[in-house]
Amino acid sequence: MIKLILIRHGESKGNKELRYTGHTNVPLTEEGRHQARHLAIRLRKENITAIYSSDLRRAFDTASCIAEGVNLSVVKEPLLRELHFGDWEGLTYNEIIQGWGKLWNHWFANPLEVAPPGGETLLQLQERVLKALFKITAKHKDGTVVLVSHAGPIKCILCYLNSLPLSAFWDIAVPPGSLMAIQLSERQGVLLCERAEGRIKIAGKAKTYMIGDILI
User: Fold this and answer.
1) Residue 22 pLDDT more than 50?
2) Could you tell me which residues are annotated as the binding site?
3) N or C terminus of the chain: which is more exposed, having fewer CB within 10 Å?
């Protein structure tokens, strides 16, 4: 059985400025670096066997801080990148609302029906991220593996592992620097979530979803 630790990078310059950075490289803020150091201290006693990270700077810098504390190197995995936001890359929320207000509202109301213009759909994002997940879990059948990524990819992984519809995407809150530890097992080639703990919140509009055996 493998223990998978999902981590969102620390606060980035884009987070602080309320921008959709997607595939754009932005640095961590001082708060983000503090969050990375806190994660490193928290995980120091874990028997971590491998650390994988999105190749984007904000994730890789977070992962590198963790890796230094456990004397491991970070494996860059581009498939763990954030959603590509197309024409919305680098824009603030207000700029997007002003230019694409109707589409923005539609995307939040029906995330599977529309996508940022020129960007990825959520289904494309999930397919990409799950390729990385399956590749990593095929290589590591046991031990503790850390994945440092972004809000979108982590939401997609959580939906898959907990049999949640991808339409629950906006109901999942993944704050910068947050951590979710999941015990995984494999039955007939399918990954299953046996237990989960962390501080990632899932609050559905119609119901509250269960993650593992703990209500998050």
Assistant:
1) yes
2) 8-15, 21-22, 58
3) N
Among 82, 84, 120, 150, the one annotated catalytic: 82
Torsions phi, psi for 149 (to 5 deg): -145, -145
The CA-based angle 122-4-215, given to 5 degrees, is 75
Number of domains in the chain: 1
140 is catalytic: no
Q: Are 7 and 179 in contact (CB under 8 A)?
A: yes
CATH number at residue 193: 3.40.50.1240
| Known binding residues for substrate | 8-15, 21-22, 58
Nearest Cα residue to 179 out of 31, 41, 30: 41
Q: Is residue 116 part of a domain?
A: yes
Predicted model pTM: 0.90
Residue range of the domain that includes 166: 2-202
The answer to whether 192 and 142 have CB atoms below 8 angstroms apart is no
Helical spans, DSSP H, in 7-121:
13-16, 30-43, 57-70, 93-109
Tokens 């031990």, residue located: 143
17 is catalytic: no
